[in-house]
Amino acid sequence: MEGLKETLDKYEIDIRHEPIGKMGTDKSFIGMKTIFTYMPTLEEDYVEFAHLVDTDKAQDMGSYQTYYRRYNLLCYFNLIPEKALDDDGERVQKRRTQQQSKQTVRKLT
User: Fold this and answer.
1) Residue 16: how many other CB atoms lie within 10 Å
2) 85 with 61: CB under 8 angstroms?
């Protein structure tokens, strides 16, 4: 997504993100709506992504929204992320698994 900001500035396109969702039911969902505004005419277009969730942890919600912002931009502009930048959270998951393993060992000793 390198260079995207320069391109948006050149064509006078503003971007804003609005969280969407509904929590506290068996059909809870979370997502992000990304709105693109062509500033000279204020014309708008948008893309949104959401999915059902089974958690209400703030950290999980923040993670989802961070990914949705990025994926909405990738989707809208038909960009392909570099593998090094897009590990689908694998590094975070590995770190959590390692931390949980360490915590388990500590509890047993």
Assistant:
1) 11
2) no
Tokens 């503003």 -> residue: 14
Give the separation between CA 104 and CA 87, rounded to whole angstroms.
Answer: 26
Euclidean distance between CA atoms 37 and 44, whole angstroms? 4
**Among residues 80, 86, 88, 65, which one has the least CA distance to residue 17?**
65
Q: CA–CA separation, 57 vs 97, rounded Å?
A: 18
Query: Tell me: the pLDDT tens digits for 26-62?
Result: 778 889 999 999 999 999 999 999 988 887 787 888 8
Burial (CB count <10 Å: 0-12, 13-18, 19+), residue 64: buried
Mean pLDDT of 13-37: 89
